[in-house]
Design brief:
By secondary structure, the chain is an alpha+beta fold. The chain contains 6 helices and 13 strands.
Amino acid sequence: MFFSEKNYNVENILDGQVILIDKPYKWSSFDVVKKIRSRLCKKFNLKKIKVGHAGTLDPLATGLLLICTGKQTKNISNYQDMKKTYEGIFKFGETTPSYDLETQVNESFDYKHIEIDKLIESSKNFIGTISQKPPIFSAIKKDGKRLYQYARENQVIKIKNREIQIHDFQIKKYNKPYAEFVIECSKGTYIRSVAHDYGKSLKSGAFLYSLKRTKIGEYSLENALEIS
């Protein structure tokens, strides 16, 4: 089902709605917010309306994005604090500076020694509270500037580790060099960093080949609307 502003009236939009959207590939989270805001303003002849998202998805990721309107934007932090579930694919034997497909492969590694039992054994070490370094290609701000801006200028900067939680980490399938996974985690978790660190833990390299967010708290991708 596609998102349609016809399913809402101006009163409930202003009072506050949580709209579940299946974010398309290569769209930024802000692209979705901008599109929905524009369509609602046009439909209801509004000069402005509060619209925001509760948790960014990278442009190369797809899946569940919670869009809040009106008074619900005040509750965005509550939705951001909810557990997230992701499924996707790690590719072993290579790394990229962005830890995903945004940048070209910069190093290659042997991965023939990696078997399914080693993948499962190593994944257990990531479950719990862990310290994680965000990717340099991220929107985190340092001294008023996004990290990806430093990265694109080839500037070397120090990035502080963050404490995050991984509640569950399962390997569903392994066809060398691709491993299909499901991860349930806390807010602030970078699955790209998990990929990078996971590769190192297996004495190889890895990057995030694809990613889809399937759940935010009790909200499910199954109930999300498509947008174009």
